[in-house]
Design goal:
Blueprint lengths: L7 H27 L2 H10 L7 H10 L6 E2 L1 H6 L2 E3 L6 E13 L8 E15 L3 E3 L14 H13 L4 E2 L10 E4 L4 E4 L5 H17 L9 H18 L5 H11 L6 H4 L2 H19 L6 H9 L2
Parallel strand pairs: 6-8
Antiparallel strand pairs: 1-4, 2-5, 3-4, 7-8
Length: about 300
């Protein structure tokens, strides 16, 4: 039953207030991650990874384009992970200091000098290793429900972008949007809640991040997409805090979460578009959603 107790203008104002409250909760939740023990553990682990030069980064990606996080054999061993059998190392250039003796003008005895040479070294991507999981800021969503499953089914059949559950996906990822071929891939066998959130995240990418937004950094794109997912899920009574707060914190360049603040309008508009799309797929008007649909999905 539709809620006509508010005028269109009053409803629009109410909706805007609710959106601001949700986005404020999101920002506060992300900021809280930075002061958590989980974040301290995350930093302690990831500080062991080396930042590679531009030249080495190019070398790494030319050999393994899907590389995410690379480290030497020794570093992986210190982190209780070992290289999988049969994996080949990724070549990089490693500085190699050396010493030599040289005659110095005005001195009888030669002096020891230092120089810098270079040699070939090898690193391995995390996908080439196995063992103890790295600390993560996110907690995978595990809830299942017939209501969420129903929404997922409608999203898949009415999506403007093809959605596949049988595409190859990296172990560390739950899904992706393929810009060139224009499709969304989602990892199979996730929980209903995780699938729902991942679908919305990738739909946000498909709507917001085309070729005309290549000026946006990866940080900005991921923060926008996950924020949209949080807002849409919240609308349906699905709490993704355990996942979204840590995910956004992990992609934010600093504790001011500037990527989030600068994108609030973009996030809100995209979330509204997806909510409207889902509502139409379910045959539910926007003004019915808070009363009719969210209550049925809340857990």
């Amino acid at each position: 039953m539709q809620d006509y107790t508010l005028t269109a203008e009053e409803y629009k104002a109410k909706k805007e207030t609710e959106r601001k409250e949700i986005l404020s909760q999101l920002e506060d939740g992300v900021k809280a991650v930075f002061s958590s023990d989980k974040y301290t553990e995350f930093l302690r682990a990831y500080s062991k990874f080396h930042n590679y030069s531009v030249g080495n980064t190019i070398m790494i990606l030319s050999q393994k384009p899907d590389a995410e996080r690379v480290a030497s054999f020794t570093t992986w061993k210190r982190m209780d992970r070992h290289i999988k059998k049969g994996e080949e190392g990724i070549q990089i250039i490693v500085p190699s200091p050396y010493t030599f003796e040289a005659k110095v003008e005005g001195k009888d005895e030669p002096e020891e000098m230092t120089g810098m040479g270079f040699r070939t070294g090898y690193v391995f991507d995390i996908s080439q290793t196995e063992g103890k999981p790295l600390p993560s800021l996110i907690t995978v969503l595990t809830e299942n429900s017939p209501e969420i499953k129903q929404v997922i089914e409608k999203m898949v059949t009415t999506s403007d972008v093809p959605i596949y559950f049988d595409k190859p996906i990296k172990e560390s990822s739950n899904g992706y949007y393929h810009l060139t071929e224009n499709f969304i891939a989602v990892k199979p066998n996730l929980s209903d809640t995780q699938t729902f959130k991942t679908l919305i995240h990738e739909m946000a990418h498909s709507k917001l991040h085309g070729k005309d937004t290549e000026h946006l950094s990866a940080f900005e794109r991921e923060v926008q997409a996950e924020s949209v997912a949080y807002v849409v899920c919240h609308k349906y009574g699905v709490d993704t805090s355990d996942y979204s707060f840590g995910y956004i914190a992990g992609w934010s360049e600093n504790k001011d979460v500037k990527e989030l603040k600068s994108s609030l309008d973009t996030i809100g508009k995209c979330a509204d578009q997806i909510i409207e799309k889902i509502g139409k797929a379910l045959g539910i008007e926007e003004r019915e959603l808070p009363q009719k649909q969210a209550q049925g999905m809340e857990r």
